[in-house]
Design a protein that fits this description.
mainly alpha; 211 residues; 12 helices; 57% helix; 0% strand; Endonuclease III, domain 1
């Protein structure tokens, strides 16, 4: 799903099949598809945004992407750690990106391959590699490959938004959210964007994915 028209079609199909989400969509208002380039740089950007506010992640990424050759895994490996960390990357994020770059250069991590897989298979493939957890894999699949049926159940903003919007007594656990969102397949990309927008518009928070 890589165009505004595709998102609009998916959202209409989601709401037609799940009318209980129509009030949520009305409160959330309009939203657009958001994509960033795939590959090593896209995955590095997802890692950059982990556990940071949107503003902080964007500022750090803005400095990071000015480093010469930083978007290529081979040249990333040649960069000095101090140079990378000076942009705001933590030691753990620097090491995570290095492990991923090494895997890509070695050919053991084939990022283009996930673009042809189902969401479940792509997530399993990515998380089999050191440094890539479920949230990182799902955010990459959504925002870098445009996968149409991904809902990052580990995202705290989404859990809070779904709990609030659907009148639940408390935010669902990851397991509960996975079971709940299963009925929104194969339109879970649109559902995730809908609830992120609901979170921003109704709950008035500023954290969430930094992409």
């Amino acid at each position: 799903m890589t165009t505004s028209d595709a998102l609009a079609r998916q959202l209409r199909a989601l709401l037609r099949r799940n009318p209980e989400l129509r009030p949520v969509a009305k409160q959330a208002g309009s939203f657009e598809i958001r994509l960033t380039p795939a590959g090593f740089s896209g995955l590095a950007r997802v890692i950059c945004g982990q556990q940071l506010s949107v503003a902080s992640a964007r500022a750090i990424w803005g400095r990071f992407e000015t480093l010469p050759g930083v978007r290529d895994p081979a040249t990333y490996l040649a960069l000095d750690e101090a140079e990378v960390r000076a942009t705001g990357f933590s030691a753990s994020k620097y090491r995570t990106c290095r492990v991923i770059a090494e895997a890509i250069v070695a050919g053991t991590l084939d990022l283009p391959r996930v673009e042809t897989m189902s969401g479940e298979d792509a997530t399993a493939y990515l998380t089999a590699h050191k440094g890539i957890g479920p949230w990182t894999a799902e955010i990459y699949l959504m925002f870098c490959t445009g996968h149409p049926d991904i809902f990052p159940v580990g995202d705290l903003a989404l859990r809070n938004a779904v709990g609030h919007a659907l009148g639940m007594s408390k935010s669902p656990t990851e397991k509960e959210l996975a079971a709940l969102t299963a009925k929104w397949a194969p339109y879970r990309h649109a559902a995730a964007l809908l609830f992120w927008k609901y979170y921003a518009a109704v709950m008035r928070k500023t954290t969430g994915t930094a992409l």
